[in-house]
Design a protein that fits this description.
alpha/beta; MutS, DNA mismatch repair protein, Chain A, domain 3; Rossmann fold; 5 domains; 5-stranded antiparallel β-sheet; 21 helices
Length: 714
């Protein structure tokens, strides 16, 4: 089932084709491009898109395909099939070019068939017939002349021609010298008539010179005579040249007949070069519009992301204007879109964008969308766009549209995409709107896919009520009353009729009177939609602002976490260093006590015993610490700093248990007492006591803790 010509005209598909035609380099390529039509075969469409995608990649990656410019050999193919026919030398040059180029492409694609797998399919079954080129080269040289050795007969004839030309030169030189010495010649001595050398003989001596008179001067004082011997050789040369021409004709007839078995090969070669020219032209156009192949799916879904209207894109690019992309989705659960909004807001261009991209895709043309886009194939694409009033057929716009709707009703099914601009217009708004609503319900029941643009409130309400139909609007800046050309899904749009009128200078008193002329409910409905659009716009701005703030907060939070980790790491290192120093001080104090007792008693055995006890105590602590360190080393490299802190807490808890055994019961603490906190070896002084808490002074800093956690230090 082909897509209607009218639909292609509505969507300006012919302008896309004109762009592609202009990129073709051969006449056959241009002809083939003009005949491009959308297909409905999924596999054909997929293959065509792959061909263009592969060629486009060669353009973008500078892995350039070989040249493919050729001249048509269609007439030559027809002549070859005629018995005893003869092609001219120029025709063989064109045939040789076609064969040369095709063999070059075959060689290229065999080398890079991994990269151009689909294009390789076009040449994989082509025969490699080098004998055509070899035969032509054996007869015609690179300058387009028949070679002397094309046949033995031609070689003999041309040898005789060269010899005869030499004799002509010699005989003329002899006659010239003889006549000149006898004084028969004029001062100019010789001339050229009909490309033949003649003697310039004075008229009075014309009977003295043997030969044929070829003419005379205007005054009659000079006669031009070709010498007799030269004349004889010239006649012989004419005979030889005639023989040469006949032999050449025979050679060309034989060469023409040689190509008869290769008719199919030549046709295939030319068809391939024509196809590659079309692919090249499509690729150049895709490069211009940033076209890609979207995800082609067999599901009933079309999701266009950041889609551009290609004709508008090129026009705006040439005028240095911005083009606004659209994002729209049609699927089984949401298959009909009702687009509303003010005039000149972009509704029609959005409608045409969806339709044109669909027919371009089905014609094997890459389209300007985001690579995440997904599209299916429709068997029918039908449209009703623009003012279709027909003077010839004496049909009004509404009558024409009714005929179109009748055609739509016959064709619409689940594989149809319908596109209707200003649905229901052309008649009484209420009656036309009611009929349009009935048509839309029929399209909905038949599970057709479609996009319509409208100002009718009843169609907006219908789209809001039916589960598989939705509203959309072209966003409008309510402050500047200018379109933003942004399609917003899920909400109907206001026409902003009175607002736009006021902006264009219509007096407010007249606008107010106009409002009173229509139903109050309709004004309120339109005003509500306009208000919702304003709120939607403000909400979008607020959302964007919150997202920006959220990103800032996230970055600041990451910075704070990083700083916190560094501080924790430094605190752990400082605590370990502090604890190590305290241990050394404790050991030093114990050694001092042992030394003092030895000084007083002088008992070496007691000294050694106490020293050994001290060493044993220290070694037992080292074993515990080394065991903990060994456990930490066995942990994986990605263990966090929190795990290290846990290990350190375990070590401190072990020290706490050791010291509890020596802990003495504390009755009361008073200001000035030396104390330390349980699990710590750092000694401080109590500065103040309030209720059950004490402030401990460590010289460099102070801290507050419960009295129950303190240990008295002598």
């Amino acid at each position: 089932m082909a897509i209607l010509k009218k639909t292609l005209e509505d969507l300006e598909f012919d302008l896309v084709i004109d762009n592609i035609v202009s990129n073709c380099v051969s006449s056959l390529g241009k002809t083939k491009a003009k005949s491009i039509r959308p297909s409905t075969d999924f596999n054909d469409i997929d293959f065509s898109l792959n061909l263009v995608s592969e060629y486009l990649s060669s353009i973008e990656n500078d892995n350039t395909f070989p040249n493919h410019f050729f001249e048509s050999i269609s007439s030559e193919i027809k002549i070859i099939q005629i018995s005893n026919s003869q092609l001219e030398i120029e025709s063989f040059r064109k045939i040789k070019t076609v064969v040369d180029l095709t063999l070059l492409h075959i060689k290229f694609l065999k080398k890079f068939k991994t990269y151009y797998a689909n294009i390789f399919q076009l040449v994989k079954d082509l025969s490699v017939c080098k004998e055509i080129i070899n035969e032509i080269n054996s007869i015609i040289d690179k300058y387009g002349f028949i070679k002397d050795n094309a046949t033995n007969e031609l070689l003999n004839i041309r040898n005789n021609i060269n010899q005869t030309k030499s004799k002509i030169r010699q005989s003329f030189s002899t006659a010239l010298n003889s006549c000149n010495s006898n004084g028969y010649l004029d001062e100019i001595k010789e001339s050229l008539i009909d490309n033949r050398r003649v003697l310039a003989v004075k008229a009075m001596y014309r009977r003295k010179v043997k030969g044929q008179m070829m003419g005379s001067s205007k005054t009659g004082s000079i006669v031009y005579i070709e010498p007799q011997e030269t004349l004889t050789q010239s006649r012989k040369l004419q005979d030889l040249l005639y023989d040469e021409s006949q032999e050449i004709k025979k050679i060309l007839r034989d060469l023409t007949a040689f190509h008869l078995p290769y008719i199919d090969v030549l046709s295939d070669y030319q068809n391939y070069l024509t196809e590659i020219d079309l692919i090249y032209a499509k690729s150049k156009y895709a490069f211009l519009i940033n076209g890609i192949k979207p995800n082609l799916t067999s599901k009933r879904t079309t999701s266009l992301i950041k889609a551009y209207h290609p004709l508008l894109l090129i026009s705006n690019k040439n005028s240095n204007l911005k083009t606004y992309p659209q994002t729209v989705s049609l699927e089984i659960e949401n298959r009909i879109l009702v687009v509303s909004g003010p005039n000149a807001g972009g509704k029609s261009i959005t409608l045409k964008t969806i339709g044109l991209l669909q027919v371009m895709l089905q014609a094997g043309i890459l389209i300007p969308v985001h690579h995440s886009s997904e599209m299916c194939v429709f068997k029918n694409v039908i449209s009703d766009i623009g003012d279709n009033q027909s003077i010839e057929n004496q049909l009004s716009t509404y009558s024409y549209r009714l005929k179109n709707m009748n055609s739509f009703l016959k064709k619409c099914n689940s594989e149809t995409l319908f596109l209707i601009d200003e649905f229901g217009t052309g008649s009484d708004p209420e009656l036309g709107g009611a009929l349009a609503e009935i048509f839309l319900e029929v399209f909905y029941e038949r599970k057709s896919f479609g996009v319509i643009t409208t100002h009718y409130s009843n169609l907006k309400l219908l789209a809001n009520e039916l589960p598989h139909m939705s509203n959309a609007n072209m966003e409008f800046n309510h402050k500047t009353l200018e379109p933003t050309f942004n399609l917003v899904l899920g909400q109907a749009g206001s026409s902003f009729t009175f607002e736009v009128a006021q902006k264009n200078g219509i007096p407010y008193s007249l606008i107010n009177k106009a409002k009173k002329k229509i139903e109050r409910g309709k004004v309120r409905f339109d005003a509500t939609i306009a208000k919702l659009q304003k709120q939607r716009l403000e909400l979008d701005k607020t959302t964007d602002s919150l997202k920006i703030e959220e990103d800032k907060f996230r970055k600041e939070n990451q910075k704070l976490n990083a700083t916190n980790d560094k501080i924790k790491s430094k605190l752990i290192n400082y605590q370990e260093l502090f604890d190590s120093n305290q241990r050394m001080i404790t050991v030093g104090n114990k050694l001092n006590d042992i030394s003092e007792r030895y000084f007083n008693s002088g008992k070496k055995r007691v000294l050694v015993s106490e020293l050994l006890k001290l060493v044993d105590t220290l070694n037992s602590k080292r074993k515990n610490i080394n065991f903990s360190k060994a456990k930490i080393k066995r942990k994986k490299n990605n263990k966090t700093k929190e795990i290290l802190e846990t290990e350190l807490k375990k070590i401190r808890s072990e020290k706490k248990r050791e010291k509890k055994s020596n802990k003495k019961s504390i009755v009361n603490f008073k200001i000035g007492d030396k104390v330390k906190i349980e699990g710590s070896s750092t000694v401080g002084v109590i500065d103040s006591i309030e209720k059950n808490k004490a402030v401990i002074n460590y010289d460099t800093f102070t801290t507050q803790t419960n009295l129950s956690k303190l240990e008295f230090v002598k």
